[in-house]
Design brief:
The chain contains no helices and 11 strands. By secondary structure, the protein is mainly beta.
Length: 116
């Protein structure tokens, strides 16, 4: 499984960005996809993810500001980020889990920088 993420960049506080992540290769029927982020000096944390059952989870810090969605082909996910704050600055990484097999795949990450 390969993950191609894009959409990061530099934006002022209050601005918006949209991230996308496309999974390709030998995909699994039972899978979960999501976005994680890691800021300098901090641990990686979940931003938003969709489970294999279709439920979407968000970090409390992004609820109401970020919207996670999945394309109709199910192999692409999006993260619409609105009302961005400087504390959202991080490397955002796409994750794909083959839930029935226990496999875990990561994309290369895309930088998001929010200036105050």
């Amino acid at each position: 499984v390969q993950l191609q993420a894009c959409g990061g960049g530099l934006v002022q506080a209050g601005g918006s960005l949209r991230l996308s992540c496309a999974a390709s290769g030998s995909l699994f029927s039972g899978n979960a996809m999501g976005w994680y982020r890691q800021a300098p000096g901090k641990q990686r944390e979940l931003v938003a993810a969709i489970t294999s059952g279709g439920s979407t989870n968000y970090a409390d810090s992004v609820k109401g500001r970020f919207t996670f969605s999945r394309g109709s082909a199910k192999n692409t996910v999006y993260l619409q980020m609105n009302s961005l704050k400087p504390e959202d600055t991080a490397l955002y990484c796409c994750n794909y889990k083959a839930t029935n097999w226990g496999y875990d795949y990561w994309g290369q990450g895309t930088e998001v920088t929010v200036s105050s």
